[in-house]
Design a protein that fits this description.
alpha+beta; 9 helices; disordered C terminus; disordered N terminus; five-stranded antiparallel sheet
Length: about 270
Amino acid sequence: MILTFCIGIVAAAARVEAAGDPFGNVAGSYLVKVDGREVWARDPSIRLPPGSLAKMMTALLILERADLRDVVTVSLEASRETGTRLGLAPGDRMTVLELLAATIMASANDACHALADHAAGSEKRFVGRMNARAREMGLSGTRFANACGHDDPGLYSTARDLARLAETAMGTPVYAKLAGLEDGWISTADGGKKFPLENKNLLIGRYRGAKGVKTGFTGRAGKCLAAFAERDGNRVLLILLNAPDRWWKAEEILDAAFALGSGAPPGRP
């Protein structure tokens, strides 16, 4: 039995080697891992803007250092955030947990900025912590310039770094729980304002086994996705950077990765 198992591992490795890069130019860069093993990649070390995939680091730092029950008062700076937002006003008060839900699921920039202010006193100081944590994790191709992923020449990452970041984030139970929710509601501490949340990750609730992780989009970054799915005992992580057809291609690549994990020949489904 042990010999058969070992032969199976060698055969799987040979199939991956033979497959090369079966997905062509689906993205500026992509990376696929099956059960923690990198199987396919295109330019995984090239530095590209990650868009809101940067929020994975923001959420991770909050989960590592903040009390989820703390109540955060929204600053004027956070309320002025652009792009995707809840519509928070200065002085609104919400728990860390609810702001995390808005950051991870809805990619709300005002919620993300409010968390950064709460954790470090200002977004600038928080970004310093983001970069320090990236160094601790060995993310040598990554640098953060803001908490939310806005386009900035000083903000970049790689598919390989983002895969490691996604794995670390999903290793925290709260992140994994929130990233896997299809929708929900949050409210201010006094109950005066309620906000519906819809997960921007369209794989959640639509692709069998999808459990996370984060979406991103900006003018420079294009459409980005960190996706995690689990099926029949196999775990697949996919990173797509600047992928014009991210949803169709994500399903195609995930299907092929699960086929590889089950022992079927890799390639396009």
